[in-house]
Amino acid sequence: MQQDFYIKDWVKIKDGKISNSKSEIFNSSEKNLDFFLKSVYDFLELKYPKFHKMDGLSKLGILGTEILFRKNSISTDTALILSNNASSLETDRQFQESTKTFASPALFVYTLPNIVLGEVSIKFKLQSENAFFIAESFNAELLKNYTESLLTSGKSSEVLCGWLNLQNGEYDVFLCLISPEINISFSEESLKNLYFAEND
Amino acid sequence: MINLQTELKESIIEQLNLEDVEPADIGNDEPLFGDGLGLDSIDALELIVLLEKDYGIKLTDPAQSREIFVSINKMAEFIEANRTK
Predict the structure, then answer these.
(1) Residue A112: is its pLDDT beyond 90?
(2) How far is A23 from chain B (nearest CA, A)?
(3) Cβ under 8 Å to B: A residues 27-86
(4) B42 with A109: Cβ contact below 8 A
(5) ipTM reported for the complex, 2 dp
(6) What DSSP character marks residue A2?
(7) Is a pLDDT exceeding 60 seen at residue B1?
(8) Which Pfam families does this one have (chain B) (predicted)?
(9) pLDDT-above-70 percentage for chain A
(10) B78, B65 in Cβ contact below 8 A?
(11) Region B49-68: what's the mean pLDDT?
């Protein structure tokens, strides 16, 4: 029998605003990415010194998942399926710049987009499936199909899926927690509706 | 004029992104790794870069770092004896 899945909760981080399925939870006019990320860290009262060593993409991933996972009890088999179109280009460029003088080992470790999956897994003690896809644009079909295969096969009880992009200091984060628990029906259409709601 | 120990603490805090840590929080004989500042292997590589960039010291044997990065005082002693700038 076909099992139904739902978007249990979601979070968006874009243009200084953070919102979730209930309301806008944070708003800042700060244009500098590092200062904005630090202000969200302080707002959430996070105590995680490792955060400050991460690249921008990982910081966005940690902040987004923190907002979602704080409200929802998370199982260690919660899978992570993320995507973007800029890969880790922001950090790649910074690392390339550092090689002109002294290459930075701390930047080098973040020159892959899937490092954010590792950082999230370490922070939340996840021992689950994860994948980071590079797609030209937000691809609801890819996220829906991969997520459903993990849930129906029983590899994961819940899946965090979505879009996590950072390029030229501009960030676009849309993360969804997909679960058998009833809320918003999980479909390509509902993913697109939520993602594009304020992204037109 | 600030002494080498204070200069090192400020450089380490900046280079390793040790947010919320002040130079006064780091004891001169406090371990930098493990139970002390809690630095990790990537931090050790950044410290090697710092030695070369700021003091012109190139470590040829990575194992040397275990003896040098014990504490601020040990680092300062090594820098004083080997600096080229």
Answers:
(1) yes
(2) 30
(3) 38, 49, 51-53
(4) yes
(5) 0.86
(6) P
(7) no
(8) PP-binding
(9) 98
(10) no
(11) 90
B20 touches chain A (CB under 8 A): yes
Which residues does chain B have within 8 Å of residue A49's beta carbon, measured at their own beta carbons? 18-20, 38
CATH no., domain A6-196: 3.40.47
pLDDT category of residue A12 using cuts at 50, 70 and 90: very high
- Number of Cβ pairs closer than 8 Å across A and B? 30
Domains of chain B, first to last: 4-82 (1.10.1200.10)
pLDDT value of position B60: 82
Q: Which of A38, A103, A106 sits opposite B42 (nearest CB)?
A: A106
The pLDDT of residue A18 is above 50: yes
Q: Is A197 at the interface with chain B, CB within 8 A?
A: no
